[in-house]
DNA sequence: GTCTATAAGTAGATAGAC
DNA sequence: GTCTATCTACTTATAGAC
């Protein structure tokens, strides 16, 4: 693998595991096997590296979500497919966890990928809720934008409650409740 | 204020703002105006201080929530009262944010207050959903435990999406959606 | 209880040779 | 592009005097 690539991948892993404040350049160098000189040659320090890593993680999450959103079946089923998708629950969300990092939220260039991901996600979920409403699957009194924001929040918050309990159970319960609330009937 | 008290309050502020990894003993000393010797005399280092601070924050959140839960009115209204309560949205949750801190989740003594808070919260919300269901306010097909977990998650996740957008709007939308989903009709 | 001194290791780079 | 050397400040304490 090329040097910049190895640096980005090592940074993605560390940001996911430790967050921005908990990730040191030294740790990135050790995990990637790259030397100090190379790192500062290819990237503008820790912030530049984090920016590249976060952009890639956000893009991957959007691609993965879109695969569920544009899949087959009725709108509520595609929402369910996204909510029930396999996840490394106790690791949390590689992008969402950075929203609790002071240096990330305070730096517009680091916060941008987070804003883009969650803005897109809320919109996309709102579209599906609107579609489900038109199709009569979802209660017509519900506001698609609001419910889209709720569904995006449930996933992020479910990671918080699961990590606090060191168990996937709170995550699964939160998703189950969300699906019941939008009136999705589990098959089988 | 007494010395241990000042240390705990300074630690609470810093943990809320910066998280565990982002909070140094030095910063705690500066904010509290206490000296190094005093700090290590009263507490067992950074972890001990964080433990005391987190326990207090969790207790405060439980007390504040219980005031809404045991207030007057129907169950759904008490849930709404809790969800709509005044919050420093862009600061996030002082306890929930620590669930993304590696050193917190990995240390049973630091994770305990988080587990207690969110375990209690899910149970308490589930109780209210069950009560609302019995009273006919809430759809009888809903599972109280699952919906309780969903409501607890919505709040935590709403902080994530709001901080990512540097705006309270995503938080408010998520809460609005949650209230619509449990069938709460806003008055006025 | 509080203070000052001390200390090994890390954080986050920069400089300049190769 | 990569390496080694170097640097200032911070991290997380401990020791022992007052």
TrEMBL record, chains A, B:
Signal peptide: none
Keyword Transcription regulation among record annotations: yes
Span of domain HTH tetR-type: 1-61
Alphabetized Pfam families for the sequence: TetR_C_13, TetR_N
DNA-binding region: 24-43
Domain of life of the organism encoding this protein: Bacteria
PROSITE patterns xref list: HTH_TETR_2 (PS50977)
Entry keyword set: DNA-binding, Transcription, Transcription regulation
Keyword Signal set for record: no
Protein name: TetR/AcrR family transcriptional regulator
